[in-house]
Design goal:
- The structure is a homodimer.
- The first copy, chain A, is of the alpha/beta class.
- Helices cover 45% and strands 16% of the residues of chain A.
- The first copy, chain A, is built from 13 helices and twelve strands.
- Chain A has helices at residues 5-12, 16-24, 31-44, 50-57, 73-88, 102-114, 129-135, 161-174, 194-206, 213-216, 224-237, 249-261, 295-311, and strands spanning 62-67, 92-97, 119-123, 142-145, 155-158, 180-184, 217-219, 243-246, 271-276, 289-292, 319-321, 325-327.
- In chain A, the strands form two sheets. Chain A has a six-stranded parallel β-sheet, sandwiched between helices. The first copy, chain A, has a six-stranded mixed β-sheet with strand order 7-6-8-9-10-12, with helices on both faces.
- At the A-B interface, helix 4, helix 5, strand 2, helix 6 and helix 12 of A face helix 4, helix 5, strand 2, helix 6 and helix 12 of B.
- Chain A binds a DNA duplex through residues 4-6, 14-21, 24, 28-30, 33, 48-58.
DNA sequence: CTGCATATTGAAAAGCTTTTCAACCTTTGC
DNA sequence: GCAAAGGTTGAAAAGCTTTTCAATATGCAG
């Protein structure tokens, strides 16, 4: 049986108020009693019960985190950033996998709400009307990490996808490439779809490159196998391209895998630029040139922002835009225009 | 202000006991009142408070998980398995990063204990006497995932590292290799050090291959950069080896990276076998032949085991050994003996 | 019609802590 | 020597729910 504050009080021969004070405001208790209490605590191996504490303070020092897939390098780096910020601030994270399953997601939200989390972070997945209806009934604040909600006023932390894609394409163009393909998320994916496609096409256009989206873009889900097939299709319809913009590192790796297997050298024959700069990018061959997102920071800043909202502190920008950059490694080569 | 059970009771004009029953044993309440209560719940958007519930039941349906680094593919796949099993059983996971920092670890354990977790899972890190002293004072059960404690009686779920390393070496030998190097964890690492070194050497010995550990083994921490250096050192002292056994996929990738950069072809000139079979193994070039650990299952089974311990059900084996296997891809080639 | 069993409900205690308020004691200042 | 101030402590309420126990009402048998 676990010792409670009453047991400590009894053993130390004081009231439970005094024990509580020894724990929370020791200077209010005279040394003699304080030491007796401390001794009793040690003897009973007493540990305060955070449930009771949370009941009174209406705070649990716990945040909820929803992620479509925690075993994904992208998310796990973001999660690591969250965990870091949370730990520094004395919070814990309840991390849940949604598997992109709306039903599971709503079930989890219900439980997290019952468990009285102080705030919630949603990663990636867009916020649908269904979701918003649930979220808006919660009394705790919500932050979106690496995603945003164009339709609703929800705090978020992410890169500027349109600009990042523009920069990726512009980078390839600056290296002399003119025939550039793209492996993208589906057109209505608000992260690695729409915005990045627009940025990509805008860059081509700005640099006077005519392009037919039907020919140079292949759409698909992010999994390696699907992306491999996408690269196959892209190569079939656009065989003379000299560079590919893949909208995630996993897609880039899949593209490279396809090319390697068909004896097309990367980057000598086809350059590949990725997106995300997950740790994998520096570990594969050839090492990936990629658009870096500050994944750890996105997680870290989401928690910082969430804590401000929890404390009721002013948050200057509802939508935080974090900087991207291009990390040059070995998968892109310059060609003569 | 959040509605409480009293508010619902007042609005529905019944006692709080009745509201509680509607939620937990609806068949005990006559239909008329039940519907009034349900209507009040909906109107007030009432959600029960799990803290109060936990206080009474002395159960929180929450498990603690400590991991040295949640952004590591290895751990994140194990974590995904845990999350899956936990979700199915109606539990949540509080996941914490220890950064291999003993002080941080103990601080976290203190908080998790206060938060009344029902059980704890420790991944990887060995259990030191210091740790054991802390753990043994907890009233909830503990399971080790992908690690074990030779010195203490703690439940665990992991592969047989000695045997797995033996099999890896035997596999290389069966492909005709005789001059085999190894990139290992430090000798006193109870996971990717000692046992795997012993298994490796035993296999060489069993197959009549003389070997000098000083020459054929290079020790080091698991990070890519360190492993890269280890490969460099190994190649310098053992230039005519035809195969390398790397004790993690990350180490294998670092080795391959070194070899690529020095124009040594993999697997044509040197074969490389990895360990873990993280998702990366199938995404790099060449695709990695590796000793597969059932990472997801290790996580899943740890939670299943932990739940049995929590429920006081019998657990037949204190130390669960899960099967490993060799996944053949493209990084190992047969040579003429 | 009485008595007993059963169905339904509510009051109150328990679970553990923090916090407010009041009480008591000791100083200090005049 | 007494009033006021300050230091220390304990009792009790509050936070929200579940559960036990008792009470009331209903139905049925004899």
């Amino acid at each position: 049986m676990k010792a409670s504050i009453r047991d400590v009080a009894k053993l130390a021969n004081v009231s439970i108020s005094t024990v509580s004070r020894v724990l929370n405001a020791p200077e209010l208790v005279v040394k003699e009693k304080r030491e007796k209490v401390l001794a009793a605590i040690a003897q009973l191996n007493y540990s305060p019960n955070a449930l009771a504490r949370g009941l009174i303070h209406r705070r649990t020092q716990t945040l909820g985190v929803l992620s479509p897939n925690i075993s994904n390098l992208f998310y796990s780096e973001v999660l690591a950033g969250m965990e870091g910020a949370a730990h520094e601030a004395g919070y814990n994270l309840m991390i849940c996998n949604t598997d992109n399953n709306a039903q599971k997601k709503h079930a989890i939200l219900k439980v997290l709400n019952e468990k009285q989390i102080d705030g919630l972070i949603l990663t990636s997945e867009p916020v649908l009307p269904d979701d918003y209806e649930v979220l808006s009934k919660f009394t705790f604040p919500v932050v979106l990490a690496a995603t945003h909600s164009p339709d609703y006023e929800i705090a978020s932390v992410k890169v500027d996808d349109e600009k990042a894609a523009y920069d990726a394409a512009a980078y390839l163009i600056s290296r002399g490439h003119r025939r550039i393909g793209m492996i993208s998320g589906s057109i209505d994916d608000p992260i690695s779809g729409g915005p990045r496609i627009r940025g990509f096409l805008r860059a081509l256009n700005d640099h006077g490159i005519e392009s037919d989206p039907k020919k140079c873009i292949e759409y698909g889900s992010p999994q390696f196998e699907h992306s491999y097939q996408a690269m196959k299709a892209l190569h079939a319809k656009f065989p003379d391209m000299t560079a590919v913009f893949a909208t995630s590192d996993e897609r880039a790796l899949a593209a490279i895998s396809y090319l390697h297997e068909h004896r097309i050298r990367v980057p000598e024959e086809i350059s590949v630029i990725g997106f995300d700069n997950t740790r994998m990018a520096g570990m594969c061959f050839p090492k990936l040139t990629t658009v870096a997102q500050p994944l750890f920071d996105i997680g870290y800043l989401s928690v910082v922002k969430l804590l401000r909202l929890i404390r009721g502190e002013p948050v200057h920008d509802l939508r935080t835009v974090v900087p991207h950059s291009i990390v040059e490694r070995d998968s892109v080569i310059s060609v003569k225009p």
